UniProtKB/TrEMBL annotation, chain A:
GO terms for biological process: aerobic electron transport chain. It is found in: Cell inner membrane. GO terms for cellular component: cytochrome complex; plasma membrane. It is a multi-pass membrane protein. Belongs to the cytochrome ubiquinol oxidase subunit 1 family. The keyword Cell division does not apply. The lineage of its organism: Bacteria, Pseudomonadati, Planctomycetota, Planctomycetia, Pirellulales. The chain crosses the membrane at residues 12-39, 60-80, 92-116, 128-147, 218-239, 251-269, 357-379, 391-411, 476-498. This is Cytochrome bd-I ubiquinol oxidase subunit 1. Keywords: Cell inner membrane, Cell membrane, Electron transport, Heme, Iron, Membrane, Metal-binding, Transmembrane, Transmembrane helix, Transport. Pfam families: Cyt_bd_oxida_I. Its main location: membrane.
From TrEMBL, chain B:
Keywords: Cell membrane, Electron transport, Heme, Iron, Membrane, Metal-binding, Transmembrane, Transmembrane helix, Transport. GO terms for biological process: aerobic electron transport chain. It holds the Pfam family Cyt_bd_oxida_II. It comes from the Bacteria. This is Cytochrome bd-II ubiquinol oxidase subunit 2. The chain crosses the membrane at residues 22-41, 94-116, 137-159, 179-202, 214-236, 248-265, 277-301, 325-348. Its main location: membrane. Belongs to the cytochrome ubiquinol oxidase subunit 2 family. The keyword Lyase does not apply. It is found in: Cell membrane. GO terms for molecular function: electron transfer activity; metal ion binding; oxidoreductase activity, acting on diphenols and related substances as donors, oxygen as acceptor. It is a multi-pass membrane protein.
Length: 551, 359
C-alpha cells in the first residue's frame, strides 16, 4: 500500500465522512421522534410528552451542533482534495449540493433556533411547526446528498462532453474573432481533451436509477439509528431504576419504531441489492465474493475472499440463494454475473465490501430478531423484567452505528475503482454486451482533437484521476493529523457531555400524567400478565391504575 | 417534493432561454449577493467572538455575549455553506482552483470554524471555570482566525495568484502570506469587530452596555486607520482593481457611498442612534465586498504570473442548462430563505436575556 496522494486523500475523506456520518442518522432519526412527541404533546396536552420532548431536544441539539461543524468539512473537501473530480462533476453534482444549501440548510438551521431557544418565546403550535421544519430540513438534506451520490453510482440525465474555453489575450482580456464573437477553442491538456459531465435532463439526474432505492434505505437506516439510540438510553434508565416511567414510555414507543423500520429496511435492502446488481454488477459480486458467472449462484454465509485465486476460501454457502436474491428466482438456478466478467483493472477491492456488507446484513437480521422478541415480551408484559435484554439494548446502539457506517462503506468502496461509475453498454434487450474477451463493457465517449484524430475514454472518472493536482501528499497528511486530533477531541467531549445529559435525565414532568399510546401498550401488557398470574394464583385480578407502570 | 418538481417545471417554461454568457453573469451577481449576505450576517457574530474576551468581565457577561448570537450564528453561517455550494455548481473550475490552491489556509479555516461552532455548544454544559475558559479561548481564537483568513484570501485574490495553463495553483503557501494580504486580513478582523461591537451594544443594556461605548469608538478608529491605508495600498499594489470602475464610471458611486457609510458610523454613535450605526456598518461591509467583486470582474481568479491563464466568468462557468436550473432553484428558494430568516430574527428580537434554554 503506497502512501501517495490518492491514498491519503481517500483516507482523509473516509475519516472525515465517517466521523460526520455518526451524526446525521442520529439527527434525522431523533428528528422524527421529536415530531411524534411534539404532535402527541399538542394533541393530548400530556405533560409527559412535553417532558420527553424537552429531554430529547437537548440531546438532539448536541448531536446537531457537531453534525453541522463536521459537515462543513465535507463541502469544502471536494474542492480542496478532489479538485479534478470537482471540475469533472461540478455541473451536475454541484447543483444538487447548491439545492441542499438553499432548500435544506437554511430551513434546518433557522428553525433549530426556535426549537432549542424558543420554548418560552413562541407558542406551542409555532414550536411544533419549527420541529417539523427542522426534521423536514434534515430529511431534505439527505435527499439531495443521496441524489448527488447516486448519480455518481448510476449516472443518468447527463452527458460527458469535451470542453472549450475562451482564448485570453496577454492582458487576460477575451479575444474576439472576425465576427466580433468571443473566440473559444477546444481545451486540450498534454494531448488529452478536457471533459466534464453536463446535465442533459435535471429530473432524470435527480431520479437516476438508484436514487429512490438508496434514499429509502438511507432514511430507514436513520430511523433504525434514532430508535436504537432512544432504546439504549431508556434501557439504561430502566436498569439503573432512574426516571423509570419516562424510560418505559420512551422504550415502548421506540421499540415499535425499531421493529417496523428494521423489517422495512430488510425489504428495502433486498430491492436495493437487485438494483445494484442491475447497474453495478461488479459491486454486488464484490459484496458476495462471487466470481463464477456460470450456473446457480450460492449465497456465501462465511468465508475468506481471495482475489488472486478468484474464489472464497473456507466457504459456507446456501446453494442457489444468490440466484434467488438477485432474480427472485424460485428455481434457485439462474446464473449471476460474477467478477470474472469484469476486467481485472475495473474490479473493486474485495475484502472491505465483502466484510462491510456482511456486517450490515448481519446486524440488520439481528435487529429484526431482537425487536420481534422484545415485542412478544412486551405483549406478554414481561419485557422490562429481562435485565439481560435491557443490557443488550444499552450496547446495541453501537451495532446500529456500525450498521449505518458499514452500509456506506460497502456502497462507496464497492464503487471503486470509479469515483463516477460509467454505465454498462447494453443491447436492445437490455442485456450487458460482452467484449471479445468476455468482459462487460463500460460506455465510452469520443472527443475530436484539434488535429482531427479521435480520443476515446470511459464515460466515467477513475478515483485515481480525481485528486487535486495542486496539493502535495504532505499537506494532506498534515490535514489528516489535524482532523484526527480535532475529531478525537470532539468525539471525547461529545461523549462526555452526552453522558452528563443522560446522567442528569429529563426534568420532572410539569403536571400529572395522562394516557398515551405508549402507556396503553404498556398497560395492556402489564394487565395481561397480572391477569394471568392472578388466574394461576386463583385470586381476583386487581385494577391496574394509570401509574401502575411506575415504581 | 412533487410540489417542488411541479414548480420547477412551471418555472422552467416561464424563464426565457438566456444565453450561457448572460446566465454566467447573473450567477456572478448572485454569488456576490450570497457573499455580501454572509459578510454582513456572519460578520457581526464573528465580530462578537473577536470581542468576547475583551468586553465580558465575568461568567454572566460572557454568557450574555454568547447568547446575543446564540440563535442566529448557525443560520448566518449557512450563507457561507450555500455560497460554497453555489460556487461549486455555477463555477466549478474556480471552486476547484481556489479550494485546492489555498489548501492549508482552508484547512485552518475549517479547523477554526469547527472549534468555534462547538465551543458555543459545549461551553455551558459543564460548571467548571477551567472548562469554560478553554471553550472561551476556542470561541475567540476560532472567530478571529476565521475572519483573518477570509481577509487574507480576499487580499490574495486582489493581487492574483500564480496559475498554470490548467488553472492549477502553482505557488506556495508562504507566498499567500504576503504583507498586503496580511494587512487585509487585519482590516477584516477590525471591520467585523466594529460591526460586532455595535451589534452587541444594541443587544445589551445597563452598565454592561455602557462599557461597550468606548469599545465601539476604539474599534472605529482602528478600522478607519486601516481602511485608509488599505485603500491606498490597493490602488498601488493591484492597479487592475480599478479597471471596471473606470470602464463604468457610474460604479464610483459605491466607493463614495462606502466612505459616507464609514463616516456615518461615528456620527450615529455620537448622536446615540446606534441602530443607524449598525445599518451603516452593514452598508460599509456590503460596499467593501461589492468593491472586491468589481475589482475581480470579469475574472474569478486572476493569474498573477500570466494573465492568459486567468479564470474568467465564462471559462469557469457551468453549462447553460445547469445555470438555468440553478437560477430557478435560487428564485424558488431565496424568497423562502428570506421569509423564514425574517421570522427567526423577529422571534429573537430585543435585548438578550439569560434563561434556562441559554448556553
Amino acid at each position: 500500500m503506497e502512501f501517495d496522494l490518492v491514498f491519503l486523500s481517500r483516507l482523509q475523506f473516509a475519516l472525515t465522512i465517517m466521523f460526520h456520518y455518526l451524526f446525521p442518522p442520529l439527527t434525522i432519526g431523533l428528528g422524527v421522534v421529536l415530531v411524534y412527541l411534539g404532535a402527541m404533546s399538542l394533541r393530548t396536552g400530556d405533560a409527559a410528552y412535553r417532558q420527553a420532548q424537552k429531554f430529547w431536544t437537548r440531546v438532539f441539539g448536541l448531536n446537531f451542533a457537531i453534525g453541522v461543524a463536521s459537515g462543513i468539512v465535507m463541502e469544502f473537501q471536494f474542492g480542496t482534495n478532489w479538485a479534478t473530480y470537482s471540475r469533472f462533476v461540478g455541473d451536475v453534482f454541484g447543483s444538487a449540493l447548491a439545492a441542499e444549501g438553499i432548500f435544506a440548510f437554511f430551513l434546518e438551521s433557522g428553525f433549530l433556533a426556535v426549537l432549542i431557544f424558543g420554548w418560552n418565546r413562541v407558542g406551542p403550535k409555532m414550536h411544533f411547526f419549527s420541529t417539523c421544519m427542522v426534521a423536514m430540513g434534515s430529511i431534505f438534506s439527505s435527499v439531495w446528498i443521496v441524489v448527488a451520490n447516486s448519480w455518481q453510482q448510476t449516472p443518468s440525465g447527463s452527458a460527458i462532453v469535451p470542453m472549450t474555453r475562451q482564448v485570453l489575450g496577454d492582458n487576460g482580456q477575451p479575444l474576439l474573432d472576425a465576427n466580433g464573437e468571443v473566440l473559444t477553442q477546444p481545451w486540450v491538456i498534454d494531448g488529452v481533451p478536457v471533459m466534464r459531465a453536463e446535465i442533459t435532463d435535471f429530473w432524470e439526474m435527480v431520479f437516476n436509477p438508484s436514487t429512490v432505492h438508496r434514499l429509502t434505505h438511507v432514511l430507514l437506516g436513520c430511523l433504525v439509528m434514532g430508535a436504537f439510540f432512544v432504546l439504549s438510553i431508556s434501557a439504561w434508565y430502566i436498569l439503573k431504576n432512574k426516571h423509570v416511567d419516562f424510560a418505559k414510555r420512551s422504550f415502548t414507543g421506540a421499540l415499535v419504531l425499531a421493529a417496523i423500520s428494521s423489517i422495512a429496511i430488510a425489504l428495502s435492502g433486498h430491492r436495493q441489492a437487485q438494483n445494484v446488481y442491475e447497474y453495478q454488477p461488479a459491486k454486488l459480486a464484490a459484496f458476495e465474493g462471487h466470481f463464477d458467472s456460470e450456473g446457480a449462484a450460492d449465497l456465501t454465509l462465511f468465508g475468506i475472499p481471495d482475489a488472486e485465486e478468484e474464489a472464497v476460501q473456507m466457504r459456507i454457502a446456501i446453494p442457489g440463494a444468490l440466484s434467488f436474491m438477485v432474480h427472485d428466482d424460485l428455481s434457485f438456478s439462474e446464473p449471476v454475473i460474477g467478477l470474472d466478467k469484469i476486467r481485472p483493472e475495473d474490479r473493486p477491492p474485495l475484502w472491505i465490501p465483502f466484510l462491510s456488507w456482511r456486517l450490515m446484513v448481519g446486524a440488520g437480521t439481528f435487529f429484526i430478531a431482537l425487536t420481534l422478541l422484545s415485542c412478544a415480551l412486551l405483549w406478554r408484559g414481561t419485557l422490562f423484567e429481562h435485565r439481560w435484554l435491557m443490557w443488550i439494548y444499552v450496547g446495541n446502539v453501537l451495532l446500529a452505528v456500525m450498521a449505518n457506517q458499514v452500509g456506506w462503506v460497502a456502497a462507496e468502496v464497492g464503487r471503486q475503482p470509479w469515483i463516477v461509475h460509467p454505465s454498462i453498454v447494453r443491447n436492445d434487450a437490455g442485456e450487458p454486451v460482452l467484449d471479445a474477451q468476455g468482459f462487460i463493457q463500460y460506455e465510452r465517449v469520443t472527443a475530436t482533437l484539434p488535429d482531427g484524430s479521435n480520443d476515446q475514454r470511459f464515460a466515467g472518472l477513475r478515483t485515481d484521476d480525481g485528486v487535486s493536482k495542486a496539493v502535495e501528499a504532505e499537506q494532506v497528511a498534515a490535514s489528516i493529523v489535524m482532523f484526527l486530533f480535532i475529531y478525537l477531541l470532539l468525539g471525547a467531549v461529545w461523549l462526555f457531555v452526552l453522558n452528563k445529559k443522560i446522567q442528569t435525565g429529563p426534568d420532572p414532568p410539569d403536571s400529572g400524567f395522562g394516557t398515551s399510546s405508549a402507556t396503553s401498550l404498556l398497560q395492556l401488557g402489564a394487565r395481561r400478565t397480572a391477569e394471568q398470574r392472578m388466574a394461576e394464583a386463583g385470586t381476583e385480578p386487581q385494577v391496574i391504575a394509570n401509574n401502575e407502570v411506575s415504581p | 417534493m412533487i410540489c417542488v418538481t411541479n414548480l420547477l417545471l412551471l418555472g422552467q417554461s416561464m424563464i426565457p432561454d438566456f444565453s450561457r454568457e448572460t446566465l454566467a453573469f447573473v450567477w456572478f451577481v448572485l454569488l456576490a449577493v450570497l457573499l455580501i449576505g454572509y459578510a454582513i450576517l456572519d460578520g457581526f457574530d464573528l465580530g462578537v467572538g473577536i470581542l468576547h474576551p475583551f468586553v465580558a468581565q465575568n461568567d454572566h457577561e460572557r454568557r450574555l455575549v454568547m447568547n446575543s448570537i446564540g440563535p442566529l450564528w448557525d443560520g448566518n453561517e449557512v450563507w457561507l455553506v450555500t455560497f460554497g455550494g453555489a460556487l461549486f455548481a455555477a463555477f466549478p473550475e474556480a471552486y476547484a482552483t481556489v479550494f485546492s490552491g489555498f489548501y492549508l489556509a482552508l484547512m485552518l479555516l475549517l479547523c477554526a470554524l469547527i472549534l468555534r461552532a462547538v465551543s458555543l455548544e459545549f461551553r455551558g454544559k459543564v460548571h467548571s471555570p477551567r472548562w469554560r475558559k478553554a471553550w472561551d479561548l476556542m470561541f475567540f481564537a476560532g472567530s478571529t482566525l476565521a475572519t483573518f483568513l477570509f481577509g487574507v484570501a480576499v487580499g490574495n485574490m486582489m493581487l492574483g495568484v500564480p496559475l498554470d495553463g490548467n488553472h492549477e495553483f502553482v505557488g506556495r503557501f508562504t507566498e499567500l502570506l504576503n504583507p498586503y494580504s496580511l494587512a487585509v486580513g487585519i482590516m477584516a478582523v477590525l471591520a467585523f469587530a466594529l460591526h460586532g461591537s455595535i451589534y452587541l451594544y444594541l443587544k445589551t443594556e445597563g452598565e454592561f452596555q455602557q462599557r461597550l461605548r468606548p469599545v465601539m469608538w476604539r474599534m472605529f478608529f482602528l478600522f478607519a486607520a486601516f481602511y485608509a491605508v488599505i485603500t491606498t495600498w490597493t490602488a498601488i499594489a493591484a492597479p487592475r482593481s480599478l479597471t471596471t470602475l473606470n470602464e463604468m464610471p457610474i460604479l464610483w458611486v459605491v466607493p463614495i457611498l462606502n466612505l459616507l457609510a464609514v463616516l456615518n458610523i461615528p456620527r450615529a454613535i455620537h448622536k446615540g442612534i446606534e441602530g443607524h450605526a449598525f445599518f451603516s456598518s452593514s452598508c460599509m461591509i456590503a460596499a467593501l465586498v461589492f468593491l472586491f467583486i468589481t475589482a475581480l470582474f470579469p475574472f474569478l481568479v486572476p493569474a498573477s504570473n500570466d494573465p492568459s491563464h486567468s479564470l474568467t466568468i465564462l471559462n469557469a462557468a457551468s453549462s447553460q442548462k445547469t445555470l438555468k436550473i440553478m437560477l430557478l432553484i435560487a428564485l424558488l428558494g431565496l424568497p423562502c430563505v428570506l421569509t423564514y430568516s425574517g421570522v427567526i430574527y423577529w422571534t429573537f428580537r430585543g435585548k438578550v436575556k439569560l434563561d434556562e434554554t441559554s448556553y
